[in-house]
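Sample pair:
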Amino acid sequence: MRQGDFVTRKSYGGDVIFRIERIEQVKAVLRGVDYRLLADAPLTDLTSAGRAGELDYPRSEQPQFRESLRRLAVSQASMQEKNEISLSHKQKVGPSYFEVPGKVLHLDGDPTYLRKSMQLYGELRVPAEGYYILESQMPEALYRLLPQVKPDIVVITGHDGILKHRKRGELQSLSSYKNSQHFVNAVQIARQYDRNRDSLIIVAGACQSHYEALLRAGANYASSPARVLIHALDPLCIAAKLSYTSVKETISMLDIVDLTVTGLDGLGGVETRGSYRMGVPGIQHVDSYE
């Protein structure tokens, strides 16, 4: 086995596919393919699941995730239909309009997940800027990026997990998690920048993150209520839905749970206004003004 290969762990029944990040003597550092999971395992515990380049990483062709993308596309089409119906009832306005979807600032602790996320934002026509930032550096990065990017939606994600070596019954302590404290610090920085949960929407967390602490810090949506693994692209789906939900509408987690792979066990949150705006009349694009 070598770096980049896809493997499963025998000791866990092969439940999760990983990519070998690097090999350190007799063990390998692993990154989840479909789930935001960072782990390590002895080489003897690994079974090959394919060579580098044989799998899409993360696998956006999974049936559940493709269904999420389909529902997002239907939601966008519904928004356009509402706009056209609204305009048809007001003859003086005319038939043209333009769209201003919410802008996303996406911070990701995994460069491969970030690349895939940016590709999908493009496919979904969501304006987005993405940055690969180590989880520990996210608070400082947000302090610099928020006034520069001026987003409507912030996604703070990467890798997390409950530590193996912790005291029994300490799931409520942030010290029992790999990166939840960093995510909480990042959310707090974002809330110092804008305290309004509707003008700056925050989606935060990764696999097994401390859900309650993230919400207390000011996140609108967070993982993971049941401390489960979340799909690598679930945060993107929530952000994309918020980007194309009208500012006149309020949505709850119950409205968007079907867009996620891991459901209410993986993500939860509070009622939040969308960030999409319609403008009239339509903007004419010209190369120059004379």
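Helices lie at 63-88, 111-123, 138-149, 180-193, 211-217, 234-243, 253-256, 263-266.
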